Amino acid sequence: MPQLYIPEVNRCLLCYDAKCSKACPSGIDPAKLIRSVYFDNEVGAELSIRSDKACLTCDAPCQKACVLDEDPIRIKGVMETLHEMAEDLDPEDFENEVDLSCDFCGVKLENPFLLSSSVVASSYDKIARAFEAGWAGAAFKTICVFTPREVSPRYAVTKDSGHFVGFKNVEQLSQDSLDEDLEIIRKLKEKYPTKVIFASIMGRNEKEWETLAGKVEKAGADVVECNFSCPNMEDDGLGSDIGQNPIAVGKFTAAARKGCKIPLIVKLTPNVASMTPMVDAAMENGADGIAAINTIKSLMGMNLDTFVTEPTVNGYSGVGGYSGKAVKPIALRFIHEIASNPKHKNIPITGMGGIETWSDAVEFMLLGANHVQVTTAVMEYGYRIVDDMIEGLKHYLSGKDLKSAGELVRKGVNSVADLDDLDRESILYPKFELSKCNGCGRCYISCRDGGHDAITMKDDKPRMNPSACVGCHLCVYVCPEFAILGSGSRRIKGRGVFGTPSKKVKNKAPKKKDN
Ligand SMILES: Cc1cc2nc3c(=O)[nH]c(=O)nc-3n(C[C@H](O)[C@H](O)[C@H](O)COP(=O)(O)O)c2cc1C
Q1: Which ligand 1 atom is at minimum distance from the Cα of 117?
Q2: Which domains occur in the chain, in start order?
Q3: pLDDT tens digits, one per residue of 48-87
């Protein structure tokens, strides 16, 4: 079963009101446990099942109840694997008190997880439900003084094994009137005073930026977030048109600053080569922090019969914003660029782009974000994902003997060196664990055709030739069994792999950046 464990978990539909859990005679919630594993909170799942061995002797009515009736998820096998893995776990490692709260521009968040500005944070009922589920706050759907005209359909997705990889939207701003949105913020703050509201705003001129900032402050918002980044605006000169132009960023930041006293941040677009000029312009004109990233301009889903991309609106489509887990590396790169900006020490950053799990959030925080925001994962899986974010982060901090989430912030910023400063004098050879190899030969094919021809197959097992291997690690990434590790031996180039040096080489250590 262990090798089936991950595919089975990935195949689960993560149902609403799951029939498997309802069918469990022992009150175990297999749907929740599988969901925890899916969202990286395996430790949480193992801890919660370890003392209840009912699954080990049960004839698995959960499995019979699975909605995939032709090929149900092997739930019993997943539960058995969790029990097996739980045996190696010491619960005491995860019992330390940890503090998940974060400070952002002087505003206290009970945990690092906020909804980002979008449909997921667009009504009283939705946001109230999210708060009840555990989200620390919400960046309200961008408020403006006009009513944007939206199209139908407005989304498109790329998927892998049924799950979103990337998500495109061509949506604009809030559909409510200004007064309706202000009333929602007022009511939310009244009912949930400890939850945090960022009010995302968009003006069409300086007066509107100033007025909107003042009005949302008066309604009770904790932070004003200027939307300089929506790539989907019907009219020119709005959204990402501003975020690509440092003069406009400076002008409209200053206007919004005039309108309010609460913390003011600007949300920037990734549709630029570098965010630095925009960050500088915002900070020099009164911003207190930066939000990044909004969505990336994209086209996708070309229909091979009609020759139109998705979403298709009466025979046409348009360039629209891409989000979801595919964009995370691009977001992380911008977060690091902002965090390492030498002009602005410890700049407060609210990070987003492709976050689905607590571990994604940790990556953002290590590279400089003070906390994170999420949209696409909530659109796909619902507000409930915050359970595993909170629990998974607690277990991670406790397991690492860290006392608070705040200790993560910026810890990895200095690990990013210029490419010309990286060590180019040594090779890290992959390590083959042949006992785990199933002989599929995927490493051989990739190395032969896309690598450096350093693997041969003998008796259905790969053999690595160290004199041809350049240590690129393509084999590590194609192995479906995790039988090739990227943690083999590092050796200085130019030495016989198992012999004496053939020539002297100088090892160059990366320079540490000063932040
Ligand atoms: C359907 C949709 C609507 C969005 N609307 C807004 C918006 O009104 N204002 C805004 O600042 N960002 C908006 N965004 C961008 C998100 O807030 C977020 O910056 C982006 O999607 C990246 O995060 P994610 O990968 O977690 O979705 C929207 C995103 C989506 C998918």
Answers
A1: 17
A2: 2-89 (1.10.1060.10), 102-415 (3.20.20.70), 419-504 (3.30.70.20)
A3: 999 889 999 999 999 999 999 899 999 999 999 999 999 9
